[in-house]
Amino acid sequence: MTKPKVLKVTPLTGSIGASVEGIDLNKPVDDATFAALHDAFLTHCVLVYRGQQLQPAAQVEFARCWGTPLNTNPLLKHIESHPEIVQVTKIPKATASTEAWHYDSPYTPVPPKISILSAVTVPHGGDTMWCNQCLSYDRLSPTMKGALEGLRVKFVGLRLGRMLGADAASLPSAVHPLVRTHPETGRKALYVGHRETAQRIDGMTDEESRPLLDFLYQHSTSPDNIYRHMWQPGDVVMWDNRCTMHYAVHDYGEAERVLNRITIEGEMPQ
Fold this sequence. Notes:
Blueprint lengths: L7 E4 L6 E4 L9 H14 L1 E4 L6 H11 L11 E2 L2 E7 L25 E8 L6 E5 H6 L3 H7 L3 E5 L1 H7 L8 E5 L1 E3 L6 E3 L7 E4 L4 H15 L5 E4 L6 E5 L3 E5 L9 E7 L6
Parallel strand pairs: 2-3
Antiparallel strand pairs: 1-2, 3-14, 4-5, 5-16, 6-14, 6-16, 7-13, 7-15, 8-9, 8-12, 10-11
């Protein structure tokens, strides 16, 4: 019997994120080790593995431990030999779609559940931040929680469309619960985002819904609910897209920045 890895899982903040030591992701992950990783992931929402120098084939295999990797959007750059991997490269700050708090692809009927980023080329700067949306929900008053019950939000891929130069009429959109339930933990999480993406509450006018959505967005991103990751070459970071938002800081000018990214097929938000 293969002896399971001895993992060291260390929380990175009191709210979200943990580092994982004692594993080489370029090697197969045995069942016992994956079970420990899975428990840590559900607890901390974001896992950080330093110094991995993860190779593309190994990244795909590691991703498959967690579910089915999604094929990349043909409009985005990917690795030819591994169509599951999108290469996240530098984008002009004026058109960057990720410099706002957001979930990945909430404007699709079935958003991905997990994203895995592997750092290849890292500039000075270019940090990524995550916030815990279960904690954001937990911190609301009972009255507010009751008011949000049953509300649904219309999400539109406006920022991504602007970055890709897509026609406004072709922008994807979807309607999802404002409070979604995590399918594995059963915890409730706020499902919001930047005003250009989370555009309005279904059945309300813009004037009625905008103040509430703006409040929930600001409430979610208080400093004590955030982990900020300073990238180093070889880092691997994975996050739970069902209960976290993230923000990519574009403070590195024209410097090169390359990260390999895989997203895992998710479930329809409930």
